[in-house]
Specification:
By secondary structure, the chain is an alpha+beta fold. The protein has 2 helices and 9 strands; from the N terminus they run H-E-H-E-E-E-E-E-E-E-E. It has helices spanning 9-38, 55-63, and strands at 41-53, 72-75, 78-98, 104-124, 130-131, 134-135, 144-145, 150-151, 154-160. The strands form 3 sheets. The chain has a 5-stranded antiparallel beta sheet. A two-stranded antiparallel ribbon has the order 5-6. Strand 7 (144-145) and strand 8 form a beta hairpin.
Length: 161
């Protein structure tokens, strides 16, 4: 005796619904990650400004520039493989002062400097520029961290190469 396998319409609808739900969940979970792997990349040079660096930081960088120069960035507990400090320079730190007659003038602080740090990175070609997990926008702060140096500068410029 041969058994015939019969489907009724309710069984077919349930099977299709399960397939659609599994496909939808899979798409939500894996499509963004797949997009990251296939997204084109760009080279970018970002200039960070450490405003009015204190003398201890100035002295440390003058004595040991290797703690910052040519160092890869660190995010969390690992290195950022596609971002590194390419150079840094110290420039005069200008402050605004009020004179006795009420005018505002610019003056150079003799004890402090601004430190400009240049970082080259490879970023995804998307509307939001990110280095590791941090967004990169002019005027925004950024946690700039290498193996032996960490500070929170402001982003001055972004140049695509």
């Amino acid at each position: 005796m041969e058994k015939k396998f019969k489907f009724n319409m309710a069984d077919v609808i349930i099977i299709i619904a399960v397939i659609v739900i599994v496909a939808g969940v899979g798409y939500k979970l894996f499509a963004p990650k797949a997009q990251e792997f296939v997204a084109p990349t760009k080279q970018v040079e970002v200039t960070f400004r450490i405003r009015g660096a204190m003398t201890y930081m100035i002295d440390e960088l003058n004595a040991r520039p290797e703690i910052l120069q040519n160092q890869p960035l660190v995010a969390g507990a690992g290195y950022v493989s596609d971002a590194k400090v390419t150079s840094f320079e110290m420039v005069p730190y200008q402050v605004q002062l009020s004179t006795d007659d009420g005018h505002i003038v610019s003056a150079i602080d003799p004890d402090r400097v601004d430190i400009l740090v240049k970082v080259e990175a490879t970023v995804k070609d998307s509307p939001i520029i990110k280095i590791a997990n941090q967004e990169v926008r002019v005027g925004r702060t950024f946690i700039l961290k290498t193996q032996r140096f960490e500070t929170t500068p402001t982003i001055d410029t972004i140049v695509f190469k």
